């Protein structure tokens, strides 16, 4: 009963104060013409990726990195073919992602899907992009965590992205069978151990992946442990090209000696 009252109250508030009138990052009042529902300040502060990105994972290359591959990808082999991202993880990016994941702001997924679509359309022409992938697969959420949150944010982002690019998104093929510890406090090796064996393909669905080119969607990319684990599962099923796209990724940082 209490949840119903809260839901009803939220619906009334949304009618009086539509979410589109507020910056998705700082909450400042904006008009409906603002790109990505961001105020001018947040739009300028977000660390958008530029031309210099890692040829492997797609994260923004540091000014201190003269190469074409980030420090992390030089040290770790990946199971995916290539990655793309839209921003570098920082204060503003964190605020957006946390509002979506932990603040009940599922509407933000639509904006992130739009940002992701524009990111890929900056690399590929619309018709080329629509033909590049056979499937868009979001990183699955364990059913217990999904029940607590009410939705899988990656699935909502993938749906929004697919609508804008003419692709097919499917969140019913992959399944998360292991409830892992939160990754934020774990190092690279611990992340890989934590995520090992966490995903599987649902019974009877493996044939749909054979020879297919796949784009994995997630909100945050850090070390690549999650995407690598999913890519390994997809490889075993006979998938073709496997790439990923994230809204934000960690910085290109050299490991301390």
Global outline: globular
Number of strands: 6
Helical percent range? 25-40%
Assess the beta-strand content as a share of residues: 5-15%
Using the CA coordinates, give the radius of gyration: 18 Å
Quaternary structure state of the chains depicted:
single chain
Low-confidence stretches: 1-10
Explain this structure to me?
With 257 residues, the protein is of the alpha/beta class. It is built from ten helices and six strands, in the order H-H-H-E-H-H-H-E-H-H-E-H-E-E-H-E.
Jot down its keywords.
alpha/beta, two-stranded antiparallel sheet, 13% strand, 257 residues, disordered N terminus, globular, four-stranded parallel beta sheet, 10 helices, single chain
Tell me the layout of helices and strands.
Elements: H1 2-16, H2 40-45, H3 71-75, E1 82-88, H4 91-102, H5 108-121, H6 126-132, E2 135-138, H7 143-149, H8 153-165, E3 174-176, H9 188-195, E4 199-201, E5 214-221, H10 225-236, E6 242-249
Parallel strand pairs: 1-6, 2-5, 5-6
Antiparallel strand pairs: 3-4
Helix pairs in contact: 5-8
Q: What's this model, at a glance?
A:
This protein is α/β, with parallel strands linked by helices and 257 residues long.
